[in-house]
């Protein structure tokens, strides 16, 4: 069975919108590229935010950053990195969709985001990630906590924003259609087969 993630569905949407090229999307779908510096720094920040004892991260972030960032979280319910997998059926067969919530508060999802440019509500509103999470986790609300850094080397964030996204009325239809179209794309392009890996073996983007 083909397995995709909420993040890959968002990458597919970005490709359709022209934000990334088909080659970039397919390389990400096949997981051919290692995490870049920004992604690695974001992962480290996530680990600090989710740690029971963040003191081990003082060599990576200023103490002020650690205290201020963690003050934005609710640690009374420390359910982090909660994974859910749900199976959907399209005319091409069954496909499995996975989502990993940074934090689960009841049925509501909290996502921690790191950026290196100014953020806005509109920048995330069209994202498929939070819409998919509404279906996978049966959530009525998804909260994005966005921390803006100057660069991956910065030891403290310079701006913080919080955006709350309520579940849209026709959310299931929008999510299902995107899953269907991505499933179709994968089958037509043969990305579920071994030759896809060989096809990209010599391509550099």
Task: Describe the protein in words.
This protein has 205 residues and is α/β, with parallel strands linked by helices. It is built from 8 helices and 6 strands; from the N terminus they run E-H-H-H-H-E-E-E-H-H-E-E-H-H. Strands 1, 2, 3, 4, 5 and 6 form a 6-stranded mixed sheet that branches. Helix 1 runs antiparallel to helix 6 and helix 6 crosses helix 7. The radius of gyration is 18 Å and the shape is globular. The C terminus is likely disordered.
Keywords:
8 helices; alpha/beta; 205 residues
- Percent of residues in β-strands: 25-35%
Structural class: alpha/beta
Total DSSP helices:
8
Count of DSSP strands:
6
- Low-pLDDT stretches are 197-205
The arrangement of helices and strands along the chain is EHHHHEEEHHEEHH
Which shape, going by the Cα principal axes? globular
Radius of gyration: 18 Å
Task: Outline the secondary-structure elements.
Blueprint: E1 2-5, H1 6-16, H2 22-29, H3 37-50, H4 63-70, E2 80-90, E3 93-105, E4 108-115, H5 121-125, H6 128-136, E5 141-148, E6 159-166, H7 171-189, H8 195-199
Helix pairs in contact: 1-2, 1-6, 6-7
Summarize the structure.
This protein has eight helices and six strands.
């Amino acid at each position: 069975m083909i397995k995709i993630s909420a993040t890959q569905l968002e990458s597919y949407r970005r490709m359709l919108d022209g934000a990334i090229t088909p080659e970039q999307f397919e390389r990400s779908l096949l997981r051919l590229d290692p995490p870049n510096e920004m992604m690695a720094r974001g992962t480290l920040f996530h680990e600090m935010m989710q740690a029971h004892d963040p003191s081990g991260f003082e060599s990576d972030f200023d103490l002020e950053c650690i205290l201020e960032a963690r003050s934005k979280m609710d640690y009374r319910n420390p359910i982090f990195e909660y994974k859910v997998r749900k199976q959907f059926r399209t005319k091409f067969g069954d496909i499995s969709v996975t989502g990993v919530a940074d934090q689960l508060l009841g049925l509501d999802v909290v996502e921690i985001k790191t950026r290196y440019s100014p953020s806005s509500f509109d920048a995330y509103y069209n994202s498929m990630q939070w819409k998919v999470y509404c279906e996978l986790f049966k959530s009525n609300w998804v909260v994005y906590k966005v921390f803006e850094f100057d660069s991956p080397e910065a030891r403290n964030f310079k701006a913080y924003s919080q955006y709350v996204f309520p579940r849209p009325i026709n959310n299931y239809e929008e999510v299902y259609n995107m899953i269907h179209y991505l499933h179709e794309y994968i089958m037509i392009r043969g990305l579920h087969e071994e030759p896809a890996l060989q096809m990209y073996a010599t391509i550099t983007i």
